[in-house]
């Protein structure tokens, strides 16, 4: 018998990775305020995304989920959001045009402000303070005041998510994502690189195809799909008080939806089978994700599937594997077999970032592009050998010319890391590396 669920039933269980707020009354008042605010997304949009993900589950579409590790309250401009969208649109068009498969586009955007941490505290020069947990909780500056969790930040996060979403909607529906502008997504610093040139050729091909369609008498101006893009939002559903406050009953179906984003995922550190995060998310009707790391057993994964998707609805559950390049073949294959044999219709996506992080000799947390590609190749190989569909990739990237991850065709070297290391959490691919990755994934799909 399934236990009854309510938006508060998670409160009876252990919730990992929650901030310790100094003042419970302020937190309670803040959550009450948030609960009175309008929803950020609509239930119908979450259902549309789920229908698209069902196509991925059936092997007929590919998921591209991408964005910052942690979005920043400090670095919040229209240009930054636009440039991130540019590279995601470029990557999606590369995958669609090269392989001819629809690409479902989901950003780690408009709400990715809460971070789980391996250690609750950080020590520098003998001083120990609470760890940085994302701008919805505290600030990355190393002082006691900055690191003290402040509930008011949740309200700032809500407003920043609303403004970001507003811009994303305007960009994707208002002409910017029009395929006739496919050249304009190639930023100057990208256009100069090998993958930038390759992209220009592909964009020329798209222009020729559009001209051909018009010459055949098709009215391309009337086709909304050529001028607009469906772009969805996602973040890790970490701070359960915030997620609960934005959970509303859909007036059409009577079902509960977490209206903070279209897709919510559970992190590797909060996927305990008897924990509060699984409990909360099993009751909302959004499409869900769950990170799966190398310690997950086939039994764990099947139980996650049963808990989060007992009705076996295709598109409801996306499993995001993050094993590390050297481990992926050995650890992923038994999980793919178990899920396949149990008949669970999941979307399998590869996060090639979080299992491949290391600290450079110069002290920067980084990732090597070769390891990132190595994990993706292992992910594809595992699916080929089991006969399942490698449904997508989940990457941390930015549209800027940062130097946070090593390698790529325009090689970032260890000595370059300090040039533009701007992330407030994990190292991200820059726009060139993101585009490079898309071309290589398109080749893997075509193999
Ligand atoms: C993340 O996606 O930023 C993250 C913390 O991932 P994971 O839960 O897989 O470690
Ligand atoms: Co991260």
Q: How many beta-strand runs? A: 14
Helix content: 25-40%
CATH architecture: Alpha-Beta Barrel
List cofactors, ions and other ligands: phosphoenolpyruvate, cobalt (II) ion
The first-level CATH class is given as Alpha Beta
Distance between the termini: 45 Å
Query: What oligomerization state is this entry in?
Result: single chain
- Helical region count? 13
Main β sheet profile = 8 strands, parallel, barrel
Taking all residues together, what is the mean pLDDT? 97
Compute the CA-based radius of gyration: 21 Å
CATH superfamily: Aldolase class I
Domain tally: 1
Q: Classify the beta-strand content into a percent band.
A: 5-15%
Could you name the ranges where pLDDT drops below 50 across 5 or more consecutive residues?
A: none
Characterize the structure shown:
The chain has helices at 24-36, 43-57, 78-99, 144-147, 152-173, 188-191, 194-215, 240-245, 276-282, 298-308, 328-342, 369-386, 431-446; strands at 62-67, 103-108, 121-124, 127-130, 231-236, 247-249, 256-258, 263-266, 288-292, 317-321, 347-350, 358-359, 365-366, 392-396. With 447 residues, it is of the alpha/beta class. It has a single domain, classed as TIM Barrel, CATH 3.20.20.70. The chain has an 8-stranded parallel β-barrel, surrounded by 6 helices. Helix 3 (78-99) runs parallel beside helix 13 (431-446). The model has no long low-confidence stretch (mean pLDDT 97). The structure holds phosphoenolpyruvate (PEP) and cobalt (II) ion. Cobalt (II) ion (CO) is lined by residues 69, 354, 396, 425-426.
């Amino acid at each position: 018998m399934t236990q009854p669920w309510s938006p508060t039933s998670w409160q009876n269980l252990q919730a990992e990775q929650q901030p310790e707020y100094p003042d419970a009354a302020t937190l309670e008042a803040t959550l009450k305020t948030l609960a009175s605010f309008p929803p950020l997304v609509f239930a119908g949009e979450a259902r549309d995304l789920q229908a698209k993900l069902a196509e991925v589950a059936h092997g007929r579409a590919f998921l591209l989920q991408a964005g910052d590790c942690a979005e920043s309250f400090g670095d919040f401009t229209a240009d930054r959001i636009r440039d991130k969208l540019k590279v995601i649109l470029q990557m999606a068009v590369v995958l669609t045009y090269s392989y001819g498969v629809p690409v479902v586009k989901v950003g780690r955007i408009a709400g990715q402000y809460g971070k789980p941490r391996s250690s609750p505290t950080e020590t520098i020069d003998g001083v120990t303070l609470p760890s940085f947990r994302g701008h919805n909780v505290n600030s990355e500056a190393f002082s006691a005041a900055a690191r003290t969790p402040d509930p008011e930040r949740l309200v700032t996060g809500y407003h920043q998510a609303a403004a970001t979403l507003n811009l994303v909607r305007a960009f994707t529906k208002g002409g910017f994502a029009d395929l006739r502008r496919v050249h304009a997504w190639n930023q100057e610093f990208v256009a100069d690189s090998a993958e930038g040139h390759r992209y220009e050729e592909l964009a020329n091909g798209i222009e020729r195809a559009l001209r051909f369609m018009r010459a055949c008498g098709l009215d391309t101006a009337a086709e909304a799909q050529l001028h607009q893009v469906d772009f969805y939002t996602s973040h890790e559903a970490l701070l359960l008080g915030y997620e609960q406050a934005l959970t509303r009953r859909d007036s059409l179906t009577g079902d509960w939806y977490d209206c903070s984003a279209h897709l919510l995922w559970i992190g590797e550190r909060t996927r305990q089978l008897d924990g509060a995060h699984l409990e909360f998310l099993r009751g909302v009707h959004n499409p869900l994700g769950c990170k799966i790391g190398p310690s997950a057993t086939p039994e764990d994964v099947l139980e996650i599937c049963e808990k989060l998707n007992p009705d076996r609805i295709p598109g409801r559950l996306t499993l995001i594997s993050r094993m590390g390049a050297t481990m992926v073949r050995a650890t992923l294959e038994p999980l793919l077999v178990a899920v396949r044999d149990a008949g669970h219709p999941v979307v399998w996506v590869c996060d090639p970032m979080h299992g491949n992080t290391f600290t450079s000799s110069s002290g920067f947390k980084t990732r090597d592009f070769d390891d990132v590609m190595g994990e993706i190749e292992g992910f594809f190989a595992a699916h080929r050998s089991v006969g399942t569909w490698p449904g997508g990739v989940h990457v941390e990237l930015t549209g800027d010319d940062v130097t946070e991850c090593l390698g790529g065709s325009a090689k970032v070297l260890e000595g370059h890391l300090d040039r533009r290391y701007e992330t407030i959490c994990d190292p991200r691919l820059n726009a060139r590396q993101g585009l490079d990755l898309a071309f290589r994934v398109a080749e893997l799909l075509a193999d």
